[in-house]
Design a protein that fits this description.
Largest sheet of chain A: none
CATH topology of one domain in chain B: Rossmann fold
Radius of gyration of chain A: 18 Å
Strand content of chain B: 15-25%
Order of helices and strands of chain B: EEEHEEHHHHEHEHEEHH
CATH class of one domain in chain B: Alpha Beta
CATH superfamily of chain A: ABC transporter involved in vitamin B12 uptake, BtuC
Helix content of chain A: over 70%
CATH class of chain A: Mainly Alpha
Distance between the termini of chain B: 37 Å
Oligomer: heterodimer
Number of helices of chain A: 12
Strand content of chain A: under 5%
Number of domains of chain A: 1
Largest interface: A-B, 33 and 39 residues
CATH topology of chain A: ABC transporter involved in vitamin B12 uptake, BtuC
Structural class of chain A: mainly alpha
Chain lengths: 258, 247
Amino acid sequence: MALDPDALVLSVAVGAAAGLVGCFAVMRRMTLAADAISHVALPGIGLAIVLHLHPVLGAAAMLLIGTVVLWGIETRTRIATETIIGVLFSTALAVGSLITSGEELIDALFGEAPRLTALETGLGLAVAAVIVGFVLRERHRLVLALVSPEIARTAGVDVARLDLRFLLVFALTIALGLRTLGVLLIGSLVIVPAATAKRLAHSLSGMLVTSVVVAVLSTTAGTYASMVLHREAGPLVVLVAAACFFASLLRGGATAAR
Amino acid sequence: MSTPPSPPTATHDGNALEVEDLSVRFGATLVLDRLSFEVPRATSLAIIGPNGSGKTVLFKALIGALPSEGRIRWAPETRLGYVPQKLDIERDLPLTGDDLLRAKARVARASDEEAVRALAVVGLSARLSAMPIGALSGGQFQRLLVAAALVGSPTVLLLDEPTAGVDEQGQQTLNELIDRLRQERGMTTLLISHDLSVVYRYAGRVLCLARKRGCFGVPTAVLTPERLQEIYGAPVGFHVHDHGPRP
């Protein structure tokens, strides 16, 4: 397969979006949630294939619905988020694997070599721009809500609404990277670069920049390697990100657990 | 879901806050039962009570973060500053004091200079505020939280045990700082405290939350030994003395 400039450009955008969203996901301790939430895309992909729609469309719709349901249960009941996610998203995985079959299932789980149309590339870039814009614009509100919802509230932040908007952007990020990385691997692209950055950075801007650099390095190097090696991009992207994380462990203070 | 506090209308002249028949329920449990009190401007109200008596719940209801029954009236043009009790965050986050102050300044539409002034007021150096928050001592971190609360020029400070986890000397510094702010800036302070010496020394009035019967009034008048035993459910050894032993 020849080098596809569109795929490389889109991989930069996906990396930037995942890197930025991941910082707040990691700081909000959504590490496990990130993986579980992506599973809800599976029944969406299955339904889209049955209905002859674009798989990403079905995935995005299910992700957004799942997110709103998660947020609704979280704000209205006192059930722990992990419990809700555990029940909701393993159900989604079960339903999804029943209605998706064979090769489609493997593609959905691990991603496929993207052969992108101009419309897909354009749409992907637009969604990435929305995600990046949201995180950069809302970062101060997100920091306050993270440190203390009471400080945020008395400063004029509607914390419940901010939470919902963050979760929706998070779901969009999952949908954005789904095609290349698949349901099982997209969570890692959101979490691993941010977790690497959390280890290396000493300030918010330091973390945001480091996370974006690691995520973009992972998506571009992974995508490039997939074109050269004729392998699926998803696993290669995740391997580059994981290599960065393990390299970060080598830096001083690896054992200084605080 | 959170309900916004009632619109800041019609407090009586001179009152920063008026609360009437405030109740908060968690399911079938009544956590706060028809509380009524008022806080005159530029005065200090201490809130005491045993663990689980609803002190923090009261604060959350007052800022509208919890649904409640009854009436909460803040004076017009009230701006709130909040110092939370303990933070539910990891200490190794790559967030500096400056990150927190800048975030507060941007959200509260205050200038960065105001954040610098707030740091000076609480006596934190620029070097300390540039460090990750996890590297600060308990006292330094509490002073950072007070500085963050001051950004945005609040008229009312809500402080939820601001000296918890701070050493003896740091506690005194913080308490005096808070009292000085009230006097110099005419701020109203609401302070949750476990330390009765602080209540006697700095609070104009005290609100006690207790399972049986609460109380509200001037500390020396309402905090009788019998009442303290009733609130805390055990005899409280306490002498009214500035540097007396803490219960």
